[in-house]
Amino acid sequence: ARNKKQTFVLGALVLVGLVLGARVLSKRPASAKAAGPVAELVPERASSLSSIMASEAASTVNTERDEYIRRISHDIARDLFEFHADLYPLVRPPQPDLPVPAAAPGHPPGQATEELVRTRAAELELQSTLHSEIPVAVINGRVLAVDDTIDGFRVVEIRSGSCVVEQAGVQVHLAIPPD
Length: 179
Description:
Largest sheet: 4 strands, antiparallel
Radius of gyration: 40 Å
Order of helices and strands: HHHHHEEEEEEE
Organism: marine sediment metagenome
Number of domains: 2
Pfam families: CdsD_C
Strand content: 15-25%
Shape: elongated
Oligomer: single chain
Number of helices: 5
Protein name: CdsD C-terminal domain-containing protein
Low-confidence stretches: none
Domain CdsD C-terminal: 137-171
Structural class: alpha+beta
Distance between the termini: 71 Å
InterPro entries: CdsD_C
């Protein structure tokens, strides 16, 4: 029974192969039909002519590409990671200063003033710093430089990963929160 099944399957595959082979051999290429009887007489020349034209077109494209690559300057003259402050100027919108009692010159701020300032500073979130020629800090989504103000606080110093802000003579150290 097993040999009969194998023989039947093999016979069916051979029959399918013969039908497909006959169909492929009986069909002419579409380009030969379009060319008419001349292409039937000289099929080798027609196909070789089209292959020559295709190779010449490819050769022209390759030559143009090679010339373009030769003309490109391969000298790298800039640092891709260097920050250019002139390309990204700081926008400093006007900020209203919140009223905080100022400390008298030469006197330390009062306890109530210091607590009020530290409470307000808790609302500030240092998100990022960029330590370069012009150090930049991102606080509450705003890009700030030294001497800029945000919510009544003046940015005093920017370091890598931290910054110091001041209000009413009270300095508060902000650090980037750990992830």
